[in-house]
From TrEMBL:
Matching Gene3D superfamilies: 3.10.50.10, Glycosidases
InterPro entries per the UniProt record, alphabetical: Chitinase_II/V-like_cat, Chitinase_insertion_sf, GH, Glyco_hydro18_cat, Glyco_hydro_18_chit_AS, Glycosyl_Hydrlase_18
GO molecular function terms noted in the UniProt entry: chitin binding; endochitinase activity; exochitinase activity
Gene designation per UniProt: TBLA0A02790
Subcellular location: Secreted
Enzyme Commission number, as recorded: 3.2.1.14
Organism name: Henningerozyma blattae (strain ATCC 34711 / CBS 6284 / DSM 70876 / NBRC 10599 / NRRL Y-10934 / UCD 77-7) (Yeast)
Protein name: chitinase
Highest rank taxon of the organism: Eukaryota
Catalytic activity, reaction form: Random endo-hydrolysis of N-acetyl-beta-D-glucosaminide (1->4)-beta-linkages in chitin and chitodextrins
Length: 547
């Protein structure tokens, strides 16, 4: 009973302390916060660029981290990350400014959602997307970098800051692309990255079939998607319907949507550049891509050859090959089928999907983007009794690295990442008490905890090196990672994106965003006046008075 009382009072003290801390922060945050740091944020904004021919831009810039990474034009590779709008929330607390943009050519912002009732595209999380104030954590980070960041103009008032700068994650991404901040603390071309809005996702999968049944809903989808893309400052649209059924309707509708989106994007480009003397080939363009399944069963359903005519990239989701739905353990992001024996069913792997797209469907390799996993999938209570040398005293033995933990029975999946059973963020791995191992035949990392019989399979630095070389050998467009919050951002030696881009050597970052262009900004104010999400920031960038 005494122990129970001690535990009670200990818990009471801890909870009281937490409550006092939260109340203090809520009441005094603005007073405790150094406003001069926040002023630095606004003062980093700089005017947009006028379009110049590509050959006038330096096409090879050395990275500042003593690696062999260079920034290059058409010979370079794409390096993308999906950034989810739940990333800023606890426990992830991953903000846009945490990304190393010197290594990123594309950010896929996830997710915008389809309203199945009317077909319109909507914000997925309004607070995170456009309302959350992320400039305070950014300003705090600037304070830590005070030796690298200068104040460029006269200080502004805090009310001006809150008025001029668009809020939310979308707002901060716009700011990062149009400020002096990234070139100051990183490399000159760091802010040359594309922002793409991703529509759909697994949790929104049921809305697509509802939309597909109505011509009016399809029309609403296309028009609202393009309107939101432009108002919120995106360079394009990425479609993620998981997955169209094998029937006469859904694949055809998916193609129709892509064709109409491409047409709408082309028309918008014509409007932006209607009075411009810049040649068409030197104009900036909106991108259309698809988050594609990466195994033949789902790919064969799609009219790939027709879709390929309007798509810029196929983001191949070469992960989730195994997981909690699998009967036995297996790698979830393996590059190859490294099995020594034939299986009744195909062992899913990235290489087979890439070959199918190139050899069977005729898709150009430089349109295919290899998917990389920033997370692992796990299994608990794995039955290892069939592995040679394992028995009753498994907890006392040491792993040699030669053990094969796939095709084993298990019970449960565990997981340390909230949101989905059986998942660990890469930055939570290897799990405590285990040692990271690498299977070169499959090209997958894994860790195994002998005490709990828990297996987690995932990508690591070693698999990034192999996959980077694979991209170069196959002539692919590049790679992307789902999702950015899973990577290690404070230790380059453990970072997946760092390892992958080091192997690639060249990143395709020469062409800047269409939302860094004066013509785009002028057309934006013509369309939205002072009512657009970005109107005030754009007016400031153009040195115009508030409209």
């Amino acid at each position: 009973m005494r122990n129970d009382n001690k535990a009670y009072w200990r818990a009471t003290i801890i909870l009281t302390f937490i409550a006092i801390t939260l109340i203090t922060e809520m009441c005094f945050y603005d007073k405790l916060f150094n406003k001069k740091k926040e002023q630095q944020v606004l003062n980093q904004l700089q005017p947009p660029t006028k379009i110049e021919p590509l050959n006038n831009v330096d096409n090879e810039i050395k990275d500042n981290k003593n690696t062999n990474l260079t920034v290059a034009n058409p010979q370079g590779y794409t390096s993308g990350v999906y950034y989810s709008n739940w990333s800023p929330y606890s426990p992830r607390k991953h903000f846009p400014h945490d990304i190393d943009f010197s290594r990123i050519s594309h950010v896929y912002y996830s997710f915008f959602l389809v309203n199945g009732d009317n077909g319109k595209v909507e914000l997925g999380d309004k607070w995170s997307d456009i309302e959350m104030d992320l400039y305070k954590p950014l300003s705090i980070k600037l304070g830590k970098l005070k030796n690298k960041v200068d104040v460029y103009e006269e200080p502004q008032t805090q009310s001006t800051i809150k008025t001029n700068l668009p809020k939310g994650c979308i707002g901060e991404f716009f700011y990062l692309r149009n400020s002096k901040l990234l070139p100051t603390i990183n490399t000159e071309n760091s802010k040359n990255f594309k922002m793409i809005m991703t529509i759909g996702g697994w949790s929104n999968r049921d809305s697509f079939p509802k939309m597909a049944k109505s011509p009016q809903k399809i029309h609403n989808f296309v028009t609202s998607a393009i309107e939101m893309m432009f108002e919120y400052g995106f360079d394009g649209i990425d479609l993620d319907w998981e997955f169209p059924k094998n029937n006469t309707q859904e694949p055809a509708v998916y193609l129709k949507i892509m064709q109409q989106l491409r047409q709408g994007m082309n028309e918008l480009e014509e409007e932006i550049y209607k009075n411009s003397a810049v040649p068409v080939e030197e104009r900036k363009h909106f991108q259309l891509s698809v988050a594609s399944p990466a195994f033949e069963e789902k790919l064969s359903v799609l009219p790939i050859k027709e879709m390929n005519k309007v798509l810029d990239y196929w983001n191949m989701m070469t992960y989730d090959y195994n997981g909690e739905w699998s009967e036995k353990t297996g790698y979830h992001s393996n590059l190859y089928d490294g099995s020594k024996v034939k299986h009744d069913e195909e062992v899913l792997n990235a290489d087979s999907a890439i070959k199918y797209m190139i050899e069977t469907q005729g898709v150009e390799p430089n349109k295919l983007v290899l998917g990389l996993a920033g997370y692992g999938r796990g299994y608990t209570n794995v039955n290892v009794n069939h592995i040679q040398g394992f028995g009753k005293n498994n907890k006392e033995r040491e792993l040699t690295g030669d053990e094969v933990f796939i095709d084993l029975e298990y019970k449960g999946v565990g997981g340390e990442s909230e949101g989905e059973p059986g998942m660990w963020m890469y930055n939570q791995l290897p799990i405590k008490g285990s040692i990271e191992q690498f299977d070169p035949k499959f090209v997958s990392a894994y860790c195994y905890d002998l005490k709990t019989n828990t297996l987690v399979t995932y990508d690591n630095v070693e698999s990034m090196n192999v996959k980077g070389q694979y991209v170069k050998d196959k002539g692919l467009a590049g790679g992307f990672m789902w999702e950015s919050c899973g990577d290690v951002h404070d230790n380059p030696k453990r970072s997946l994106i760092t390892a992958f881009t080091n192997e690639l050597g060249k990143i395709k970052k020469q062409e800047s965003s269409i939302f860094q262009d004066e013509k785009t900004f002028e057309f934006y104010l013509e369309e939205f006046g002072n009512e657009g999400y970005l109107s005030e920031a754009i007016a400031k960038l153009l040195n115009k008075d508030k409209m």
